[in-house]
Amino acid sequence: MWKENEAILKVILSIEKFKGDYSLFCNAVLQNGYSPDYKNFSRLLLWKTCLITESLNIKIWKERLQSSRAVYHELSRALSMTIPWWLLKADSEYFTALPVPEKDHVPRTLRRPTRIQNPTSDPLINEPAEQMASNKYFDVELDAELLRVIILDVQRLFPGDSQFHGADKDCLAHRRRIISILFVWSKCNVDVGYKQGIHEILGLIYKNLWSESVNISNTNTLSFEDLEILSLYDVKYLEHDLFCILNKFVANSGVMGQFYQSETALRGAIKKFNGYLMKVDQLLHYNLITKLRLDTELWSIRFFRLLLLRELGNDLAIQSSFWDKLVAAEAFSSPSHQAIPELLYFSIIILLINVKADLALCDFAEAMLLLLHYPISSRLHLHPNFVDLLFQDAYRLWTYRHTDLKLYEYGIKLNERYASVIRVSFGAESQSIAKGIRLNTIPSTCEIKRENSAFEKSRMENRLKKRVQLFLKN
């Protein structure tokens, strides 16, 4: 966590750098002008400015923060949002006994049934519609099951990370906060509910914002202006702010609607991605879709749903830097033009272009293995600033999204930069690949091997499709 003076100084210097201009600030993030390389960089300032206050005017922060925090405060106190910690097993580290100050103050729906209750209505008659609607939002047993699922995922969050995995009370408190936010958020978004993967998105945001939060001391040494700045960093309201940030980052941005909400929406997103891939790189599209018959649905779901969290490597600082730019881009989007999903499409296309030569030599199984274990380390070794370049190129493609010719022309430039080892000839020699190796000069033993592996390929594809279907249902 940061010290009070550290947070105040970085905010003042950051605002002065951009003269209090919010648009200039967001543009600087997009163009890598405000990044962790800048000594007064604050990721908390970036995220809360872009997703909560939407202004660098300190005078209006307090009002906007109060308005945002009041939403989570009221939701978390609502009876229907009560987290049933008491329904967990007594030996669970999250178990909390239900406080019962007075018997009449505890709704019967919050207690475990201890005896068979006499029915007051005919059980063969369907429930009235009004009663069914009310039960939809408050069924304590379903809530308990939801809580168990969230706990199971959070327990596996970032294995080995000392902030979340340890025997001390702080680690438990961190996990408990994340669980609480996810529970309330899932109850509020009943049309989507909780989906596996959201915990990783929230976990990374939590980790970054917690590290810069401030525990404000109860002293008279801070001026009114200082307190206005520190209101943004107050650790007491971290849970409130994270709820708002999660909602805007994954719900309002279109991520939930396109990648999580339904199988139909996800298929629509995949279709749109394939369309962009065709416009940017026809050869790559042909190789994956036609030649290898590699259904995009088999490998792309994790890319979409986790916002490239796994594909950009194990260094969380790299993913965080990429997400910073997504957040800044969201400031310029609208309900009709949601930036984050389309920036993801183009980012993935650029990742594919980077391994285009490898994919050209792969069969079905090898291509699947490559895409499910993207070789990001080799890209970072060649280009230390690879993630910055990745976003810059994706953002350029996004600005060209309505002009097919510009997408095609920029795709050629990307190929010259990242896949220049591939050469295609349309003469009698047909296709050739990097360093003089011809694609059509394949030994007969290789052909035999491919024929013998046809059955294995088909079986693997069917198994993967079943896994995808199960993943979508969950």
UniProtKB/TrEMBL annotation:
The UniProt entry, under InterPro entries, shows: Rab-GAP-TBC_dom, Rab-GAP_TBC_sf
Q: Molecular function terms in GO for this entry?
A: GTPase activator activity
One Pfam family from the UniProt entry?
RabGAP-TBC
The Rab-GAP TBC domain, residue ranges: 51-330
For this entry, list what GO says about its biological process: intracellular protein transport
| Protein name (record) | Rab-GAP TBC domain-containing protein
